[in-house]
Specification:
Belongs to the Gfo/Idh/MocA family. This is Gfo/Idh/MocA family oxidoreductase. It comes from Telluria antibiotica. InterPro entries: Gfo/Idh/MocA-like_OxRdtase_N, Gfo/Idh/MocA_domain, GFO_IDH_MocA-like_dom, NAD(P)-bd_dom_sf. The chain has 335 residues and is of the alpha/beta class. The chain folds into two domains: 137 residues, NAD(P)-binding Rossmann-like Domain (Rossmann fold, 3-Layer(aba) Sandwich); 163 residues, 2-Layer Sandwich (Dihydrodipicolinate Reductase, domain 2). Helix content is 36%, strand content 26%. It contains ten helices and 14 strands. The strands form two sheets. An eight-stranded mixed β-sheet has the order 8-9-10-7-11-12-13-14, covered by helices on one side. β8 and β9 form a beta hairpin. α4 runs parallel beside α5 and α5 runs antiparallel to α9. The radius of gyration is 20 Å and the shape is globular.
Length: 335
């Protein structure tokens, strides 16, 4: 085994560049190569970040000097790209949302487990110091038994209908792009969901442009979550008990401060800086798990991902949002 974990990146977009940047700040990780459907695009990427350029995804995942693959392609092709990497014997870190629906996620998890390969959803919020501090404060009992969580994430998307945020063919919509962050952290802090109520507003392209969700968790807590492509929301998360609350400040999914406010009037703000651009923490966790021969991370388990995908499937059922991947699954089940 080499001293550094060698990464291959599928895709050359915004997330891929953020990940490559994080690798520069991760001492035991390095970029081995990047794969694109266009060799010239891959070469442009490697001129900036290093590594070998590959003109196809298949060439990258079969490269002998690649240990782990980061999938940063558009959501609708996550399933086929992750499957390609797993079938090539590579461990995978896949950008959120993990897949379009739970059925796709189940197949990928089963494939990874059958072949003893590492697989993790790249939910970077799960590994940031801010969330660890919130957990510590809640576990200390300082705010009492947790009863409610409120979280939102949203901005006005000034983009055209062809943009990935609004294009149904690219998995567009507020829920899968931003709601996934809110729901994931709500489940991380309050536990499994036993019931859900959802409503949404749709735009001209047929995707949800804002969605609101009320969750009841099996532990007895309740969370109110919303996401929007129409409004600049506060994008904060507050978790509250009978003796006070903890707030992950704007933007909660990458916040570097946490504020505690107690019922007795005492409050404080705790610095929670992260390394590099924030991706470093999930990179380090993926590498740790891969080196240890694990198939999943205890910080973002397969069960966590499947529960989250199942929850979003139910929300989409309630609001009436479907994608091509859902229809192809139905066709397979009902020939």
């Amino acid at each position: 085994m080499t001293d550094k974990v060698r990464w291959g990146i599928l895709g050359t977009g915004k997330a891929a560049k953020a990940f490559a940047t994080a690798l520069k700040d991760t001492p035991d990780g390095q970029l081995a190569g990047v794969g694109s459907r266009n060799l010239a695009t891959a070469e442009l990427f490697t001129r900036e970040f290093g590594g070998t350029a590959y003109g196809s995804y298949a060439d990258l995942v079969h490269a002998a000097d690649v240990d782990l693959v980061y999938v940063a392609t558009p959501l609708p092709v996550h399933y086929e790209n992750v499957r390609l990497a797993l079938e090539s014997g590579k461990g995978v870190l896949c950008e959120k949302a993990f897949t379009v629906n739970r059925r796709q996620a189940e197949e990928l998890v089963a494939l990874a487990r059958a072949n003893n390969l590492f697989l993790m959803e790249a939910m970077w919020t799960r590994f940031l110091p801010a969330l660890a501090e919130v957990r510590r404060i809640v576990d200390s009992g300082e705010i009492g038994t947790v009863r409610q969580l409120h979280a939102d994430l949203g901005f006005k998307a000034d983009v055209g209908p062809e943009h990935r945020l609004l294009n149904p063919e690219l998995g567009g919509g507020a829920l899968l792009d931003m709601g996934v962050y809110v729901l994931s952290i709500a489940m991380a802090l309050l536990g499994p969901v036993e019931s859900v109520l959802a409503q949404a507003d749709f735009g001209p392209t047929g995707v949800d442009e804002q969605t609101g969700v009320l969750l009841r968790h099996s532990g007895g807590g309740m969370s109110v979550c919303s996401c929007s492509l129409r409004a600049r929301l506060s994008s904060e998360l507050t978790i509250a008990g009978e003796r006070g609350h903890v707030r992950m400040n704007t933007m909660f999914y990458r916040t570097q401060t946490v504020t505690v406010a107690r019922a007795d009037g005492i409050s404080r703000t705790v610095p929670t800086p992260y390394l590099g651009n924030g991706y470093v923490h999930e990179v380090a966790e993926a590498q740790r798990c891969w080196r240890a021969g694990l198939v999943e991370s205890p910080g973002m388990t397969h069960a966590d991902t499947l529960a989250l995908m199942g929850l979003m499937d139910e929300i989409r059922r309630q609001i009436g949002l479907t994608y091509e991947a859902d229809q192809s699954m139905t066709t397979k089940e009902n020939p």
